[in-house]
Design brief:
Chain lengths: 384, 283, 838
C-alpha cells in the first residue's frame, strides 16, 4: 500500500508484520482469572446485601450473604494467588500502594474486604438468631427508631411460620445451629460476647469495600492496551457490577429460605438487567472492536451469558414460589455471571491476537487528528 | 538524577546482522527463544518477548514496475523494475526493535509490586527479585514488549543494560552494532541527531523516512528508545499511535464509581416493598 | 559483504554517508543489496561477461586513464607473434594441448623473450598434474619471469601491443551480450559503466570488493584478472580508495596463505621445490620466477628461510640444507588427495580446523575417502562430522557404508579456540593483529602451536641418527615453554618469522635479508613485524590518536605498507595525481619518497632513475615502475605467463550450465580440473533433468560448515533450518509452499530443505528462455553437537576446480527441484540412479 493512499484506511484493510499481533495477549489463565472475577464480584455485591439485610433485621439473609461474601473473597484470593507466576511472592502485592495500578488498589481492597467479610461471617455464625417472627431483635435494627426500622424492613404483622420455609431451609437452619453451637463452645466467652458487635461493624464497613470489589476488576482489565477491554472502559464496570449483583443475588437466594430471600431475588433481577443492558450498549458502541464479543468462542460465551442471565432474571420473580424455580433461576444467573467473565477474557485475548484491532483504530485516530489539524489550518472551528 | 539516556535506532543503515540480538542474550544471559523456522524472511525469533529483548525484523518489499531502475537507495531514486513481468523486490527493510523505555510507561504504572521502576537514567527496569509474575504489565504495554517467561514465572524485558550503564559502559547491543544503526546516548542529543538524519534522507528524496517515538507529545510522552523507519510503523509490527493505557485511568475510575453507586442503589432498592412485587408467601 | 563481513561493511556504510555510490552485483538480493544504492541481479557464473563489457566500454570510448596506463601497465608491450587469441581459435588460446588439457604459455610471452617464460611448459611424467603442480603459484608472489624491458609501442598502435590485443579480445563483450548472458538490462549496465568511469581518474578512484562469489568458479582466477584489467585501465590500483579488495574468509585465512597451509607454497609465496623440476638450490632459484624486480632477491629470501629452519646446520656448502625440504611431485591438492584416499594410496590424514565431510564439495566422496584411511587426526573445537562420520554419517542411512566396515582409526584432539591462545590474525588487508589469551583452554584443549610443537618434540625423541632423519634432527625446534602445559611461546615464533641478523637482533625490513646465510627469516614478507625487538602487531594506538592511514594499529606486510604498489598514487614525475588523492610522493629536496603511508618503493630511487643494461632485482626497475614485484615493474593487463588457463580472461560457462556459450565454440574453461569418477558424476551436459541454476552461499547467522555456529543456541535459533531460496514464479510453477519442504537433486545426490519463497531471488530471461536460480546456504550437517541439523549441501556439489588455485566451483551449477521431502534409505539411491540415467 502506498503512502498517501492510506489517507483513509478502509475498514479492516491494514498492514502488519506477517499478521502477527502488535501487543501481547493477556497471559491470565482460565479458569483462574474469570473465576476470580466472578468470586470477587459476587463477594463484593454479597457484602452489600448482607449489610442491608442486617440493617433491615433479615438475619437469615444476612447470614447467607455474609457467608457468600466471605467465601467469595477467600476463594477469589486463592485463585488470584494461583494465577501468579511466583505465588510465594503474593505478599509483594502489599509491598507498595500504587494508585496508578488497579491491581495494586484491588489487592489492598481485596485484603481489607476479605478481612471484613470473614469477620462479619464469623460473627454471624456465633450470634444467636432471633425467632422467625416477632419484633426485630437485631441489635442494630433495635437501635434504630422503630418507625424507620419498620420502613426499612417493610414489616407488617409478623409472618407466621410457613410451609414455604421448606425442608432445605430447615435443614440449613439446623446445620447452621449445630455449627454455631460448636463454634461458641470453642470460643472464649469474652469473644463470644464481643464478636457480634464487631462482626456487624465489619459487615457495615464492607459496604465500602464491596462495591469496589465488584467494579475495580473492570478498571483492571480496561487499564491495558487490549483493544476490546480498554475501549470498553465505560461499560465494563456496569457489566461487572451488574453481573456481580446478579451472581450475589443468585448465590444468596439459593442458600436462603424462600421466605427470607426476597431481596436477594430482587437484587438478582436488577443486577441481571444492568449486566444485560451494559453488555448490549458496549457491543454497539465498540463497533468493529465489538467483534470479539460477538464472534468466535468469546462471542458464543457472551451469547450464552446473555441467555442464561435473562432466563434467570425472568425466573427470579416467580422463584419465590418454589425451590426448583429458585434453583433454576439461581443456577442460570450464576452460569450467566461466569460466562460473562470467561467471555470477556476470551474477547480480550482475541482482540489482542489480531493486529487489526490495534492498528485500524489507531490509524483512524491519526487520520481524524490529521483532518482536524487540516480543518484547523483552514481557519475553521477546530474543536469538533 | 543522571541525564536521560536512550537509543536512536536508525533502521536505514541496519544490515540485519542480528549482532544486537546475540550480544543482548550473551550479556544478559537471556535463554534462547526456541529453534523454529518461521519462513518470515530471515526472521526466526518473531517478536520481542521474555526471551528476546532485541528483535530484528525483516520486511521484503515487493517491487512495482517503475522507471526501470534497481532498488531504491538514499540517493533518492526508488522502485524496482518489472523484471520481464517477474515479481521483483523493491527493498528489504531491517529494523532492530527494543523496549521503548516510554516517558509514560504503562508497564511501570500498572505494576502492583513496584518491581518495575524508573532508574536514574530514566529507563524502565524490572527488578527480578521483586516481580511476582502477576502478568499485569504484559497486556499493559502498548508495544507488546514485556512478557512473562514460562517456567520462570517472572516478567522480563530490556533493561537498557542498567548494569553496564552503572559501570559506565554503553549497552551491549549498541556496542556491537557494526553500522551504528543503534546509537546510544543522552536522549536530547539523539533527538537532534535523528532530526538531522531525517533532513538528510528527505533531501536525498527518501520521503518515506520518518521518525517514530521521537515526539514528546505522543501518546506515551515520547520513547526513550526511538526509531527512524522507512515505512509505516505497523509494517514493522509497531503500533501507529500508541497511548499509555493509564492516560484514561481517572475516567475509568469515574465510570467504575458510577457503576458502584448504581449497584449500591440497586441493592437498596431490592430491599424495598418486597411484599408487593415479590410474594414471599402465597396467600 | 554485509552478510559475511558485517564489521568490515561499516566502512562501506561510512563511505556511503560521505557520498560514495554503492553497487551490489549478486544473483540474490542480499542484506548488502538492501542498503546499496543499486542492486544488479546477475546470473551466477557470468561475471566475466559483465567485466569484459566494462573493459570494452572503457577501451572503445578511450575512457582509460591514459597517462597511468602508458606509464604503469604493460599496455604498450608487444606480444610474441606466436600468440593466438580466443578470437582466432574459437575460445582457445595458443599453446593448448588437448591431450593433457593444459596450456604451454610459451607463445603468450613478450616479443623476443621467447622460451624464457615457458615456466609451466615442460612435460614431465604425470602429465598435466605435474605442470599444474604449482599452478599459478609456481612463480611465487613474483609472478612469471618476463623480460624487464620488452619491446613496446607508446603510441599503442602496434597490432600486437597489449592494448590492441585487448581491444580485439574484448570487442565481443557488449551490453547486449551482458543482457543475454548475465540478465542485466542495458540501462543498468550503462549506469554502472558511467558511474565507475566517471568516478575514476586523477581526482577520484573506484574500488571493487569481492569474495568467493567471484572465486568459486572454474574460471575463478580469471574473474579477478578481469577486475584487475579494468582497474588498471581506470588507474585504480596503488591509489587510495582504489584497488580490488579480496574479502577473505576464515579469521587469518590470509595468514595461512602467507605462511601457507598450501601444498605448493613455502612461506612468503616461495614455490615448493619440485621433485623432478628442481635439482639443487641454484636450479630451484633459476626456475622459480624472475631475476628482476624485488623477486630478484629470491635467493636472500630462500636462504634466510632455510637458515631459520636449520640454523647452524645450514651452510653454503650444503646448499643451506635445501635438500632437507620436502618436495612436491604433482598436484597434492585437497580433492586430488581425497581421490588418492579412495584409491587407497593416501593412508593417513590430518584435518586441522576444517570440516571437509560437510564443508567441501562432493561430501560423499570426501567421506568415502575418510572411510578408507588407516588413521585420521581431527583437531577441532567440537566433534565435527569429519570426526564422527563413521558412526552417524548420512551414508550409513543409505546403506552405502556400514560402521563395521570402516577401519579408519580416528584420533580427536580438542583444540583451544582463538580466545584461549595468543598469536596473530592476518586479515583481509594484510594486517597482522596480535591477540592476547583471554581465558585458559578448558580440559585437554591445546593450541595448534602447542600440538605441533610437542608432536615435533616427540618425533624427534624417536628418530635415529639415520641419514633419512637428518632434516628432523637438524631442525631448529627450541621455543621457550610457558605454563603448566609447556605452551610454546607464540611471541618467540613471531620473532623467528620476523628474522634476525648476524648480531642475532631482530631485523626491521626484508631489504636487510642477505643471500649469504648471515640472516635468518621465517617469512620474508613478515620481516619487520618484530622490528626493534617490539611486537609491532600488538600495537593498538586508537584511531583518534593518529592519521587516517593509522600506521600504528597492528602491522601490515610488507614493511607496514597499508596500500600495495602505492608509488602508483603519484604520477611518473612523482607528483600526486591530484591534491585530493595525494598519498605518497617524491620529495625532491630531501631526495626521497614520502607521504601518508610507507612508500612501497625504494625510498631514495628518484622518478628519473633508468636501469642500466643487465641490472638485476629492484635495480632493473625504473623510477617509474610501481609494480616492484613484477619483473618489468608494470601492472599486467596481459599476463605473458603465470596462469594455467590463459593470458586474458575469456567467458566460459560453468562446468554445469543450462546455457550454451554464445561467444566461442569452447563451452567451459578448457583447463578446468575435473575428476571423472563414479563416486561423483557430473550432471549430463545440457540435460533437461537439471534445468535450474544452483548457487550456494553463507548466512550472517552461521559459519561455514557450522561447527562453530550450530552448537551455539544464540546463533542456531536465528537460522534453525536449512532452506532454499526460490522466486515466487518458480514456487508457483512447481507448487512450492513457503515454509514447506523441497528436494534439490543433482547427479551426486538429493537433499531436502525448507522453502523460502522470496522476490529476492529472481528468474532471468536468457537466450529467449527463462532461467530460474535457486539459492542454498551451506551451513548445515547432521552433527557437530549441533542444536540444529540439516542435510549437507556439499553432497550436491560437483568435483570441478579452477586450474590455477584448485578452488571448487560451488557458486554455479545445475540442479532439479521438486516439492516435498526427499526419499530416505535405499529409495534415495534409486532416485539418484533414475536421474543419472538422464
Ligand atoms: N557470517 C559469516 N561470515 C563469513 C563466513 C561465514 O560462514 N559466515 N565465512 C567466511 C569465509 S570462509 C569466506 S570465504 C567469506 C565468503 O564471503 P562471501 O563471498 O561474501 O560469501 P558467500 O555468501 O559464499 O558468497 C557471496 C555471494 O556470492 C553470490 N554469488 C554466487 N555466485 C555468484 C556469481 O557468479 N557472481 C556474483 N557476482 N556473485 C555470486 C552469492 O549469492 C552470495 O550472495 O565469508 C567469511 N565470513
Ligand atoms: N557449497 C559450498 N561449499 C563451500 C563454500 C561455499 O561457498 N559453498 N565455501 C568454501 C569456503 S570459502 C571455505 S573457507 C570452506 C570452509 O569449510 P571448512 O573449513 O571445512 O569448515 P569450517 O566450519 O570453517 O571448519 C573450520 C573448523 O575449525 C574449527 N576451529 C576454529 N578455530 C580453531 C582453532 O583455533 N584450531 C582448530 N584446530 N580448529 C579450529 C571450527 O570449530 C570448525 O569446525 O567451505 C568451502 N565450501
Ligand atoms: S515499551 Fe512497554 S515495556 Fe517498554 S517501557 Fe514502554 S510500556 Fe514498558
Ligand atoms: S509481572 Fe512483575 S513486573 Fe509485571 S506487573 Fe507483575 S510484578 Fe510487575
Ligand atoms: S540495552 Fe541491553 S538489555 Fe536492552 S536490548 Fe540492548 S543489550 Fe539487551
Ligand atoms: S547490530 Fe545493528 S546492523 Fe546488526 S541487526 Fe542489529 S541494528 Fe541492525
Ligand atoms: S566474525 Fe570477526 S571477522 Fe567476521 S565480521 Fe565479525 S568480526 Fe569481522
Ligand atoms: Mo573461505
Amino acid at each position: 500500500m502506498r503512502r498517501g493512499e492510506e489517507a483513509m484506511v478502509p475498514q479492516a484493510e491494514f498492514r502488519s508484520y506477517y499478521g502477527q499481533p502488535v501487543i501481547k495477549s493477556p497471559i491470565w489463565h482460565e479458569p483462574h482469572m474469570p473465576v476470580y472475577l466472578y468470586l470477587g464480584g459476587t463477594s463484593g455485591a454479597a457484602s452489600m446485601l448482607a449489610a442491608m439485610a442486617t440493617l433491615t433485621g433479615r438475619d437469615r439473609l444476612a447470614l447467607t450473604a455474609r457467608l457468600v461474601a466471605a467465601g467469595g473473597a477467600a476463594g477469589g484470593a486463592a485463585f488470584l494467588v494461583a494465577e501468579l507466576g511466583r505465588p510465594e511472592r503474593f505478599l509483594n502485592m502489599l509491598r507498595v500502594f500504587k494508585p496508578t495500578s488497579p491491581m495494586s488498589v484491588g489487592s489492598w481492597v481485596l485484603a481489607v474486604h476479605s478481612g471484613l467479610t470473614a469477620l462479619a461471617a464469623g460473627s454471624a455464625l456465633v450470634t444467636p438468631r432471633r425467632p422467625p417472627s416477632g419484633p426485630p431483635p437485631s441489635r442494630l435494627a433495635a437501635a434504630l427508631p422503630a418507625r424507620l426500622a419498620a420502613v426499612l424492613s417493610g414489616t407488617r404483622p409478623a409472618p407466621s411460620p410457613s410451609r414455604t420455609a421448606g425442608a432445605a431451609g430447615a435443614a440449613g437452619v439446623a446445620g447452621v445451629a449445630a455449627l454455631r453451637a460448636r463454634l461458641v463452645a470453642a470460643l472464649p466467652s469474652r469473644a463470644v460476647t464481643l464478636l457480634p458487635a464487631t462482626g456487624d461493624a465489619a459487615g457495615l464497613v464492607a459496604v465500602l469495600t464491596g462495591p469496589l470489589m465488584a467494579t475495580y476488576t473492570a478498571v483492571l482489565v480496561a487499564d491495558t492496551a487490549v483493544p476490546a477491554w480498554h475501549e470498553a472502559h465505560r461499560e465494563l464496570p456496569f457489566l461487572f457490577a451488574g453481573s456481580a449483583l446478579a451472581g450475589a443475588g443468585a448465590a444468596s437466594m439459593l442458600a436462603t429460605p424462600l421466605r427470607d430471600a426476597g431481596p436477594a431475588r430482587a437484587a438478582a433481577v436488577l443486577g441481571a438487567t444492568v449486566e444485560t443492558v451494559a453488555g448490549a450498549v458496549m457491543e454497539r458502541r465498540l463497533g468493529m472492536l465489538g467483534e470479539p464479543y460477538r464472534q468466535g468462542v468469546s462471542g458464543r460465551l457472551m451469547r450464552a451469558a446473555r441467555v442464561l442471565t435473562v432466563a434467570g432474571a425472568l425466573l427470579a420473580p416467580v422463584a419465590g414460589r418454589g425451590r426448583t424455580l429458585t434453583a433454576l433461576s439461581g443456577l442460570a444467573l450464576t452460569g450467566g455471571a461466569l460466562c460473562t467473565r470467561f467471555g470477556v477474557l476470551r474477547a480480550g485475548k482475541a482482540s489482542a491476537a489480531d493486529p487489526k484491532y490495534t492498528v485500524v483504530p489507531q490509524r483512524e485516530r491519526l487520520e481524524a487528528a490529521r483532518q482536524e489539524a487540516a480543518r484547523g489550518e483552514n481557519g475553521e472551528n477546530a474543536e469538533i | 538524577m543522571a541525564e536521560r539516556m536512550g537509543f536512536f535506532t536508525d533502521t536505514s543503515i541496519c544490515i540485519g546482522c542480528k549482532a544486537c540480538e546475540v550480544a543482548c542474550k550473551e550479556w544478559n544471559h537471556v535463554p534462547d527463544d526456541g529453534f523454529v523456522f518461521r519462513a518470515t524472511s530471515y526472521d526466526n525469533t518473531g517478536s520481542l518477548g521474555a526471551d528476546t529483548w532485541r528483535h530484528v525484523a525483516f520486511i521484503e518489499q515487493p517491487g512495482r514496475a517503475r522507471d526501470g531502475r534497481g532498488p531504491g537507495g538514499p540517493d533518492g531514486s526508488d522502485g524496482a523494475a518489472s523484471n520481464g513481468g517477474f515479481e521483483d523486490i523493491e527493498g528489504w527493510l531491517m529494523s532492530s526493535d527494543v523496549c521503548k523505555h516510554c516517558t509514560h510507561a504503562a508497564c511501570l504504572d500498572v505494576c502492583p509490586t513496584g518491581a518495575l521502576f524508573r532508574t536514574e537514567f530514566e529507563t524502565v527496569v524490572v527488578q527480578a527479585d521483586v516481580c511476582n509474575g502477576c502478568g499485569y504489565c504484559v497486556p499493559a504495554c502498548p508495544y507488546g514488549v514485556i512478557d512473562r517467561r514460562e517456567g520462570d514465572g517472572r516478567a522480563f524485558k530490556c533493561t537498557m543494560c542498567y548494569d553496564r550503564q552503572l559501570g559506565g559502559l554503553e549497552p551491549a547491543c549498541a556496542k556491537v552494532c557494526p553500522t551504528d544503526s543503534i546509537q546510544f546516548g543522552p536522549l536530547d542529543e539523539l533527538r537532534a541527531r535523528a532530526a538531522e538524519r531525517l533532513e538528510h534522507l528527505h533531501a536525498g528524496g527518501r520521503s518515506e523516512a520518518r521518525l517514530y517515538g521521537a515526539d514528546p507529545g505522543d501518546g506515551v510522552g515520547g520513547d526513550g528508545a526511538f526509531f527512524l523507519l522507512m515505512d509505516e510503523p505497523e509494517v514493522y509490527g509497531l503500533p501507529p499511535d500508541p497511548v499509555v493505557t493509564t492516560r484514561d485511568l481517572p475516567a475509568m475510575w469515574g465510570w467504575a464509581a458510577g457503576a458502584a453507586l448504581s449497584m449500591a442503589g440497586a441493592v437498596a432498592i431490592s430491599f424495598l416493598g418486597r411484599s408487593r412485587s415479590f410474594p414471599g408467601r402465597s396467600r | 559483504m554485509a552478510e559475511c563481513h558485517p564489521v568490515g561493511f561499516q566502512w562501506v556504510v561510512e563511505a556511503k554517508a560521505r557520498g560514495a555510490k554503492v553497487f551490489h552485483i549478486d544473483p540474490r538480493f542480499t542484506r548488502t543489496s538492501a542498503i546499496a544504492d543499486r542492486y544488479l541481479p546477475i546470473r551466477a557464473g557470468s561475471d566475466i561477461v559483465l567485466l569484459g563489457a566494462l573493459i570494452n566500454h572503457v577501451l572503445t570510448r578511450e575512457l582509460d586513464f591514459r597517462e597511468y596506463v602508458l606509464a604503469y601497465t604493460n599496455a604498450s608491450s608487444i606480444i610474441s607473434e606466436d600468440f593466438g587469441d580466443t578470437e582466432d581459435l574459437d575460445g582457445l588460446f595458443s599453446g593448448f594441448d588437448p591431450e593433457t588439457r593444459a596450456y604451454d604459455p610459451a607463445s603468450w610471452s613478450y616479443e623476443g623473450s621467447g622460451e624464457e617464460a615457458s615456466g609451466g611448459g615442460e612435460h614431465l611424467e604425470g602429465g598435466r598434474h605435474h605442470s599444474a603442480a604449482a599452478g599459478g603459484d609456481q612463480y611465487g608472489s613474483g609472478g612469471a619471469p618476463a623480460s624487464s624491458r620488452p619491446p613496446s609501442d607508446p603510441t599503442l598502435r602496434h597490432p600486437r601491443c597489449v592494448y590492441q590485443i585487448l581491444r580485439r579480445h574484448f570487442a565481443r563483450y557488449t551490453p547486449e551480450l551482458v543482457e543475454e548472458l548475465c540478465g542485466i538490462r542495458p540501462e543498468d549496465f550503462a549506469e554502472l559503466a558511467d558511474a565507475i568511469t566517471a568516478n575514476s581518474g586523477r581526482e577520484r578512484t573506484t574500488a571493487w570488493a569481492y569474495a568467493v562469489g567471484w572465486t568459486q568458479h572454474t574460471v575463478g582466477a580469471q574473474y579477478i584478472r578481469a577486475a584487475s584489467i579494468l582497474q588498471l585501465l581506470l588507474g585504480n590500483i596503488g591509489r587510495p580508495g582504489g584497488g580490488i579488495l579480496a574479502l577473505r574468509g576464515h579469521a587469518s585465512i590470509q595468514g595461512s596463505t602467507d605462511i601457507p597451509t598450501l601444498f605448493n607454497l613455502l612461506p612468503g609465496y616461495l614455490p615448493m621445490p619440485h621433485a623432478h623440476r628442481h635439482g639443487g638450490l641454484d636450479d630451484y632459484l633459476a626456475n622459480v620466477g624472475a631475476d628482476t624486480g624485488f623477486w630478484g632477491r629470491k635467493r636472500a629470501y630462500t636462504v634466510s628461510l632455510l637458515k631459520a629452519w636449520w640454523g647452524e646446520a645450514a651452510t653454503a656448502e650444503n646448499d643451506f640444507c635445501f635438500g632437507h625440504l620436502p618436495r612436491v611431485t604433482g598436484d597434492h591438492g585437497h580433492f586430488t588427495t581425497v581421490m588418492a584416499q579412495i584409491d587407497g594410496t593416501v593412508k593417513g590424514y590430518f584435518v586441522v580446523g576444517e570440516n571437509p565431510a560437510v564443508g567441501s564439495s562432493g561430501g560423499r566422496a570426501q567421506r568415502l575417502g575418510l572411510a578408507n584411511l588407516d588413521w585420521l587426526v581431527v583437531r577441532d573445537l567440537t566433534l565435527v562430522e569429519t570426526a564422527t562420520f563413521w558412526k552417524d554419517g548420512p551414508d550409513l542411512a543409505t546403506g552405502e557404508m556400514r560402521t563395521e566396515d570402516i577401519a579408519t582409526e580416528v584420533f580427536f584432539m580438542p583444540a583451544a579456540s582463538h580466545v584461549e591462545k595468543e598469536g596473530t590474525f592476518t586479515n583481509t588487508q594484510r594486517l597482522l593483529q596480535w591477540r592476547h589469551k583471554a581465558v585458559e583452554p578448558p580440559g585437554d584443549c591445546r593450541s595448534d602451536l602447542s600440538f605441533y610443537y610437542h608432536l615435533g618434540k616427540r618425533i624427534r625423541q624417536r628418530i635415529t641418527d639415520d641419514e633419512i632423519d637428518r632434516p628432523l634432527r637438524e631442525l631448529t625446534w627450541d621455543y621457550p615453554e610457558e605454563g603448566e602445559h609447556a605452551e610454546p611461546s607464540a611471541d618467540a615464533v613471531l620473532r623467528e618469522i620476523n628474522g634476525t641478523g648476524p648480531d642475532g637482533r631482530a631485523l626491521s625490513a626484508y631489504t636487510e635479508l642477505e643471500p649469504d646465510g648471515s640472516t635468518r627469516c621465517g617469512c620474508w614478507i613478515y620481516c619487520g613485524v618484530y622490528a626493534d625487538e617490539v611486537n609491532q602487531a600488538a600495537r593498538r594506538k586508537p584511531r583518534g590518536e593518529q592519521d587516517r592511514v593509522a600506521p600504528e594499529w597492528g602491522w601490515a606486510w610488507p614493511a607496514n605498507r597499508r596500500i600495495l604498489y602505492n608509488r602508483a598514487s603519484a604520477d611518473p614525475e612523482g607528483r600526486p595525481w591530484s591534491e585530493r588523492k595525494a598519498y605518497v610522493w617524491w620529495d625532491a629536496e630531501r631526495g626521497e619518497w614520502t607521504g601518508h603511508d610507507v612508500p612501497d618503493f625504494e625510498r631514495d630511487k628518484p622518478p628519473g632513475y633508468r636501469p642500466p643494461e643487465g641490472a638485476l632485482a629492484e635495480a632493473a626497475l625504473a623510477g617509474t615502475d610501481p609494480f616492484i614485484m613484477q619483473p618489468d615493474g608494470k601492472g599486467w593487463l596481459f599476463a605473458p605467463s603465470g596462469l594455467a588457463d590463459g593470458p586474458l580472461p575469456a567467458h566460459y560457462e560453468p562446468h554445469e550450465s543450462p546455457v550454451r556459450n554464445p561467444l566461442y565454440g569452447q563451452q567451459a574453461n578448457p583447463g578446468r580440473q575435473t575428476y571423472q569418477r563414479p563416486e561423483s558424476p557430473y550432471n549430463p551436459p545440457g540435460s533437461s533433468r537439471f534445468p535450474y541454476v544452483l548457487t550456494t552461499y553463507r548466512l550472517t547467522e552461521h559459519h561455514t560448515a557450522g561447527g562453530m555456529s550450530r552448537p551455539l543456541a544464540y546463533l542456531a535459533e536465528l537460522q534453525p533450518e536449512l532452506f532454499c531460496e526460490v522466486s515466487p514464479a518458480l514456487a508457483a510453477e512447481l507448487g512450492l509452499v513457503n515454509g514447506g519442504w523441497a528436494t534439490i537433486v543433482t547427479s551426486r545426490t538429493a537433499i531436502e530443505a525448507r522453502v523460502l519463497v522470496t522476490g529476492r531471488v529472481r528468474p532471468l530471461r536468457l537466450q529467449g528462455g527463462t532461467v530460474h536460480q535457486i539459492g542454498l546456504p551451506y551451513h548445515w550437517g547432521w552433527g557437530s553437537g549441533g542444536l540444529v541439523t540439516g542435510d549437507t549441501v556439499n553432497d550436491l556439489m560437483p568435483l570441478v576446480l579452477d586450474p590455477n588455485v584448485y578452488i571448487q566451483e560451488s557458486k554455479a551449477m545445475t540442479c532439479d527441484l521438486r516439492p516435498g521431502r526427499r526419499p530416505t534409505g535405499r529409495a534415495l539411491l534409486d532416485l539418484i540412479e533414475e536421474y543419472r540415467r538422464g
